[in-house]
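debug: dumping io for the single-chain case to check the tokenizer round-trip. Nothing else runs in this session.
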Amino acid sequence: MGIPDLSASVFAMKYAILVDVGYLYAAAGEVLFGARERREYRVAADELIQALQKQAAERLPGELLRVYWYDAAHDRVPTVDQRVIAALPMVKVRLGNLNKQGQQKGVDAQIRSDLDALARHSAVTDAVLIAGDEDLVSAVEAAQAYGVRIHLWGVEPSYGSNQAERLVWEADFVEVLSADLLRPFVRQANPLPTSPSQPSTPTPAQVFAGRPAAATTTRAARTPSPAGSALSKLGPNRDAVEEVGEHVAQKWILTRGRDNVRDLLPGPILPTVIDTELLIEAEKELGHSLRPYPEARVWLRDGFWNRVYREFDLAERKSAK
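debug: decoded output
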């Protein structure tokens, strides 16, 4: 009998990272800022996902299959942030429902279903689970019965424990994500004031007001050249395009929620995925393509930001400067 090729078996090893975003964000907000609600902080999710991938690559043999990102949204309509995350390579967003009380529904069921399918079909040999709910114990036990090793990662608690004791018992390996590891990717938000008696609380308008020179320069840089103006006579009308941009912004505020659109502030740069989506929706409204007209895409963004600035009382502050 020959010596088995161990390098081939290591190469065949694969792992998945399953993240309960509600747990990860809440635990990070608690340990870093003592925050109780997600609106109190902002997370650079794309950078955080890269950090988790790097952490796993340093600790697990084999290769990453993909990251499963379990979050929730009202009526399962993805937010701006969730749409950006869904476009990342090797990341699959799974959405549960977020009810009127801000409670996640259906997230644990999706984690259990995916973990069972990955184990049953031998898609992975190891699974990193970032979660804390005891409801996941049965899924962990089932995956282990198929031979999958469970690596349970938890966020450093501010005190006591933030993971169910039985879940910790059942895991094959347990690791703590330190506050220092998470700190670069989580920052406190600048909430809108709840009443006029709180002038010391910075608002998005105040944040933007501190950047008048950048806003003016950007606007000037967008002025079409004579060649661009001549081309525009053969293409779309500027007022019509800006109006469509405002219409799309209004639609997003209504369907995706004011808080989610506020995440785009202070602008004026849009994430590539969101900018492309804005273009697609505008072309549907206009009934023709804007892609041959670069200046029209600038007008579209101008209209979009005009409506967003008005929504958050930024337009008046900017013009007053």
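debug: round-trip ok. The two ends are 82 Å apart (CA to CA).
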